[in-house]
Amino acid sequence: MRLTALTALAGAALLAGCGGGSGSAGPPAPCPRVTILADGADLTQHRPGAVADLTTMTFDARLLGFQGACEYSRRRESVVVTLSAIFEVERGPAGAGVGRTTLPWFLAVTDAGDGQIIDRQEFASLVEFPPNVNRVRVQSRPVRLNFPAEERLVENHNVRLSFQLTPEQLALNRRRGPR
After folding, report:
1. Which of 13, 28, 56, 102 could staple 47 via S-S, CB 3.0–4.6 A?
2. Per-residue model confidence (pLDDT) at position 151
3. pLDDT over threshold 50, residue 15
4. Total-model pTM
5. Strand 78-91 vs strand 100-111: parallel, antiparallel, or unpaired?
6. Does residue 47 register a pLDDT over 50?
């Protein structure tokens, strides 16, 4: 249910950002399907070496959505897809006094059936907590992807967003289910 709602919101946001680019009166640029992987939408970190419980949690982050736009390049030879991930991060009890953290995440471009990974890029977004603030919402720097301008090629791709998780973090997400 959560993935469906996120996908619908994210898809609407991306499609709202699609346009002809550069004031062109032509048809809007095509966009790939962009979704957040349900198993990778949460990242909980604990103090190193400690038992993973609430008292050792340094922060808990969620990949909430993204901002996106699709535009033709100047000569309409390619479609430039620009994406920024949106995160909400809460400092845990073991994170008191920690003013910043880094969120490891990635995006993967796949074919229409998710059978082949065409491109995979990893990123790290810095999160800073202002004094006396334990929850912040941040947006990553924009990521630009170029696709050939042939409409069928662009629309027949998926872009998947996820946190870069350890096997233990992935197992935790799968045990507790979507939040």
Report:
1. 56
2. 66
3. no
4. 0.81
5. unpaired
6. yes
